[in-house]
């Protein structure tokens, strides 16, 4: 193809040939990455280089947030303190009850000769960067393999399940959000105990799939993780049912849910680390 | 502008602007700002391809595309391929683009940027959710064969070519 702006008998390859070569390289990149997952080293390299840059670039925003927080009115702080004191008192009661339950549980377990569940460790992580992929909703956290994270660990915030660690780098990690399309979470309906699969739909919402038409489910029902996958601990709040509709063409209900965790807002999250549980039959 | 290209595009300036573009993408974008965020790196690459094609073209675009793939947690190659195609389109339209004023340049770049974005979408879809086999491409082949048969038939029927008789 003749190209204006270039010599007629240039010694370099023409743009068309160079385009084709690079397209070939790109296509093999895609194939290697999707089929053989052989480019994770490159990903780690990029993450090592970009991690400090990201940390530096977000510093001004962190400082601004700190300053903004510093000037919160005294009055507001006092009010918050009072509210927190009340809540603390209430929680202390809960803690006592929980301790009692733990003790009782341990006794029962020893009675039943069961192995107790291995202790869970919690890693605090902060949101570093929000991904901009059209096919999956991801966030990047500032903790990685160094803090003991690995693929598949659940990530929660104060109000519910955020997602699952999907890639781990030395100093950071990527989390696939529960609302990401195709991300499945085994749940149960808190009110009825009905089990189901919640799937993200990629638009910050989730659908509860395969609910037969006569299922007892209403808007407002909470969905908790059911724990049958041995990946998520049981009982983490996941979503609240927002709309239930019947469709003519499908034998299943269409159940829309809103995730409870602040997927778009959360800055600080927790990663739950539990050793893989092996149960003997 | 053509005269000034040698002084405008020093290596230092090129690398500086591209680094700045990469750094801008590291800002903690969120919400509407994230949705509206221009692709700084792509704009930088295409700009330097337009003004300094001997220095910044396919290789740089491919590397920065890989960086963009990492950035979005996408499949490696997704943005790289799209950026390379964008560079090709800019090289193809280069002399035309250089004669336009900024507004017309932007208007000409719009379809290029749109094409790049659609290509990212297409490759991502193919990589994440590949259709079963490449059988969907068979109609392309059969259509080409059909074209050959029709053209052959028309030529045999009318003699040399239809356009002569119109």
Structural overview:
- The complex is a heterodimer of chains A (281) and B (166).
- Chain A is α+β, with helices and mostly antiparallel strands and 281 residues long.
- In chain A, 33% of the residues lie in helices and 28% in strands.
- Chain A has a domain at 117-275: Rod shape-determining protein MreC, domain 1 (Thrombin, subunit H).
- Chain A has helices at residues 15-36, 40-70, 74-112; strands spanning 121-130, 138-141, 154-157, 160-168, 173-177, 184-189, 195-200, 206-212, 222-225, 237-246, 252-259, 268-273.
- In chain A, a hairpin with a 5-residue loop joins strand 6 and strand 7.
- By secondary structure, chain B is an all-alpha fold.
- Chain B has two domains: 5-130, no CATH class; 132-166.
- Chain B has nine helices and no strands.
- In chain B, helix 4 runs antiparallel to helix 5 (58-72), helix 4 (40-51) runs parallel beside helix 6 and helix 5 (58-72) runs antiparallel to helix 6.
- Chain B is extended and about 65 Å long.
- Mean pLDDT of chain B is 86; it is low at 1-5.
């Amino acid at each position: 193809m003749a190209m204006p702006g270039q010599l007629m008998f240039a010694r370099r390859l023409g743009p068309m040939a160079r385009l084709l070569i690079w397209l070939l390289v790109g296509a093999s990149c895609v194939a290697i990455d999707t089929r053989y997952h052989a480019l994770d080293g490159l990903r780690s390299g990029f993450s090592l280089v970009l991690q400090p840059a990201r940390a530096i670039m977000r510093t001004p925003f962190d400082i601004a947030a700190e300053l903004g927080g510093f000037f919160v009115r005294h009055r507001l702080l006092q009010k918050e303190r009072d509210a927190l004191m009340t809540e603390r008192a209430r929680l202390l009661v809960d803690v006592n009850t929980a301790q009692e339950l733990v003790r009782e549980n341990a006794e029962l377990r020893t009675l039943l000769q069961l192995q107790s569940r291995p202790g869970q460790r919690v890693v605090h992580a902060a949101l570093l960067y929000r991904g901009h992929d059209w096919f999956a909703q991801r966030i990047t956290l500032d903790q990685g393999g160094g803090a003991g994270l690995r693929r598949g660990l659940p990530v929660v915030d104060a109000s519910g399940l955020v997602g699952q660690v999907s890639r781990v780098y030395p100093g950071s990690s990527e989390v696939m959000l529960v609302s990401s399309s195709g991300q499945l979470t085994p749940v149960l309906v808190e009110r009825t105990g009905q089990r189901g699969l919640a799937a993200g739909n990629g638009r910050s919402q989730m659908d509860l799939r395969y609910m037969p038409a006569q299922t007892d489910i209403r808007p407002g029902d909470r969905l908790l993780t059911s724990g049958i996958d041995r990946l998520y601990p049981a009982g983490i709040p996941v979503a609240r049912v927002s709309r239930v509709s019947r469709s003519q063409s499908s034998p299943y209900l269409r159940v829309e849910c809103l995730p409870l965790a602040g997927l778009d807002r959360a800055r600080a999250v927790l990663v739950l680390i539990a050793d893989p549980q092996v149960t003997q039959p | 502008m053509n005269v000034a290209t040698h002084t405008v595009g020093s290596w230092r300036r090129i690398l500086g602007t591209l680094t700045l573009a990469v750094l801008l993408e590291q800002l903690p974008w969120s919400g509407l700002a994230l949705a509206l965020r221009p692709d700084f790196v792509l704009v930088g690459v295409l700009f330097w391809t337009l003004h300094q094609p001997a220095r910044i073209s396919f290789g740089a675009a491919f590397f920065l595309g890989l960086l963009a793939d990492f950035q979005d947690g996408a499949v490696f190659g997704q943005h790289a391929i799209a950026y390379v195609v964008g560079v090709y389109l800019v090289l193809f339209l280069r002399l035309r683009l250089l004669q336009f004023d900024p507004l017309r340049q932007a208007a000409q770049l719009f379809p290029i940027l749109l094409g790049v974005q659609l290509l990212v979408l297409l490759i991502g879809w193919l990589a994440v959710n590949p259709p079963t086999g490449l059988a969907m491409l068979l109609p392309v082949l059969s259509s080409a064969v059909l074209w050959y048969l029709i053209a052959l038939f028309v030529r045999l029927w009318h003699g040399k070519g239809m356009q002569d008789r119109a």
